[in-house]
Design brief:
The structure is a single chain. By secondary structure, the chain is an alpha/beta fold. It contains four helices and six strands, in the order E-H-E-E-H-E-E-E-H-H. The longest helix has 14 residues, at 13-26. The chain is globular, with a radius of gyration of 17 Å. It starts with a strand and ends in a 10-residue tail after the last helix. The chain has a domain at 2-93. It has a six-stranded mixed beta sheet. 21% of the residues are buried. It has helices at 13-26, 45-50, 95-108, 120-133; strands at 2-3, 32-35, 40-43, 60-64, 73-81, 84-91.
């Protein structure tokens, strides 16, 4: 399992230290989402790093689906961190769906997201889908 190479969230050393402190105090508040198709973490990159899951730690799988659920989930389970269970969800998504989830997550968390696409036709599709999903948001196309 490796970091998602297009993760829009970058944090400073101080923010990373604060994240570790919060994890120590509150535990994980959301879980880790891992795309098996790309072997990248889609949700929880910084938390996975802070809890040292990137060093080969394997999750305990409690349920495996014969075929992906409607949201693409193929397995569910947990990691154990200092005696606490951290939710884990394995999905089977295309790279495009992973990117879409990243953009939506950034939007829903009020984070800044920069997305790039080289195909002008696909850019138009992406912009229209975003405008349809978030009609009150301003979209800036940078050429």
């Amino acid at each position: 399992m490796k970091h998602y190479h297009k993760n829009p969230r970058q944090i400073t050393e101080k923010q990373f230290s604060q994240l570790q402190s919060w994890l120590e105090e509150f535990g994980d508040l959301s879980g880790i989402v891992h795309n098996v198709k790309t072997d990248e973490i889609i949700g929880g990159n910084q938390r996975a790093e802070a809890m040292h899951f990137m060093n080969g730690t394997k999750p305990t799988i409690e349920h495996t689906y014969r075929k992906p659920t409607r949201t693409g989930t193929v397995a569910e389970g947990y990691f154990t961190y200092k005696g606490e269970r951290i939710n884990y969800r394995r999905v089977d998504w295309t790279a495009k769906k992973s990117e879409k989830a990243t953009i939506i997550a950034a939007q829903n968390l009020s984070r800044r997201c920069f997305a790039m696409e080289i195909s002008p036709a696909y850019c138009a599709v992406i912009l229209q889908r975003f405008a349809d999903a978030f009609p009150d948001e301003e979209i800036e196309l940078i050429k």
